[in-house]
Amino acid sequence: MLAIVLVMFLVLLLAGFPIIVSMGIPALLYVIVEGLPISTMAYSAFQALNSFPLVASPLFVLMGCLINEFGETTRLFNFCRVLMRNAKGYTAKVNIIVSLLFAGMSGAAVADIGGLGQVEIKAMEEEGFSRDYACAVTAATSMVGPIFPPSIPLLIFAVLAQQSPLHCLMSGAIPAFAIVVCLYIFISFQCRTKLKGYHDEHPAAEKESLWAVTKEAAHILFLIPAIIVAMLGGFCSPSEAGAAAVIYILIVEAIKGKFSFSILKNAIMGTYKTVSNIFIIIAVASFFTKVLTLEHFPEMVTSAFLGMADNPFLILLLINLLVLLVGMFMETISALTILTPILLPVAAAIGVAPVHLGVILVLNLTIGMLTPPFGVGLYTVATVGKEAPHKVLKELLPLYVPLLIALMVITYVPELTMWLPSLL
């Protein structure tokens, strides 16, 4: 029965059916054949969604949508442009830094591409970079979003693995900086050959004084560290931090005279679409993984991994390869929901902390978003940048090098992940 469920899932997935159909039909078949009550599926979905930590994810998504709708992303980008305008190749480096800053507001890679993509690509073109390279850099730097707090995938992992949401969120902070450092060094070397037709004359957006753009972006620059400090200091939970951030943005925009109900409506609708997609996947995947658990699939996977190697180093390498492969074919939340209960026993068997495993899973799956055949991040940035996906991929391939180096460092140096949570 387990073989039938897995084969049906893979066939439906590769045939192009939506992920909830690919998981739901095999699970429903299992219920019917095994004589379980149909209500088991509904109860399983209720259990998966009846979790207070999940409240934080729509609040952080709403925060990111509000920041986008009020145009704060552009002010943030202009601040970084003016700050670094005298360095050759500065727009590519600004792309990296802004992605880190915006990650603290959106918590998702696609949100980063959608919110800042056009601005970043246009700025890089103005400096002299080709459009396809600008798209590739934008895609690669967006990988920080799902790792740096507040990270939506790490929040979901915390619920699935029954870990502290705060510990999981904080575990991604230092790894995110490691990714930024690797990308910054690599792209700095690339700028020597990729920057053609350099313009010494800066665009009007960069001729403002640093003080002027700092005043414009100060309220947003304050928000990012405030959220992290509030959670680290124990002043509020992630859910409360998300709610406070939303209220803060609304009050600031009202004081500035920029608040409107149409903007609020657009932000709420954007949040609704994003969160509903995430929650319906969690609801269906929860029962699919329960079916796998009833058939002792996690135990089989653990035995298979331990049978292939008894060295934790090699097992972690195999986990990375498996999750990267899965990320190439599945959306991040879907893959995370399925893989977490399967790989947690493997991690426990080799002494890897669940929080550390969460960062490894999320980073692997995020890199998989840039990789064909499905590559959501790749196709999103190609659409935003109005460039052919194969041209973007050609420029993106070298950028896998710093991302994979960062992945290996994060995998094999657990202190990077575990230090901040250990302080809590």
UniProtKB/TrEMBL annotation:
InterPro entries with a match to the protein in the record: DctM, TRAP_DctM
Nucleotide-binding is among the record's keywords: no
Keyword list, A-Z: Cell inner membrane, Cell membrane, Membrane, Transmembrane, Transmembrane helix
One Pfam family in the UniProt entry: DctM
Transmembrane regions listed in the UniProt entry: 7-32, 52-71, 92-116, 136-161, 168-187, 220-251, 272-292, 312-330, 342-367, 399-420
Membrane topology classification: Multi-pass membrane protein
Any GO CC annotation of this UniProt entry: plasma membrane
Keyword Transmembrane helix annotated: yes
Primary location group: membrane
Domain TRAP C4-dicarboxylate transport system permease DctM subunit: 6-416
Subcellular localization(s) per the UniProt record: Cell inner membrane
Molecular function in Gene Ontology: transmembrane transporter activity
Protein name: TRAP transporter large permease
Taxonomic path: Bacteria, Bacillati, Bacillota, Clostridia, Eubacteriales
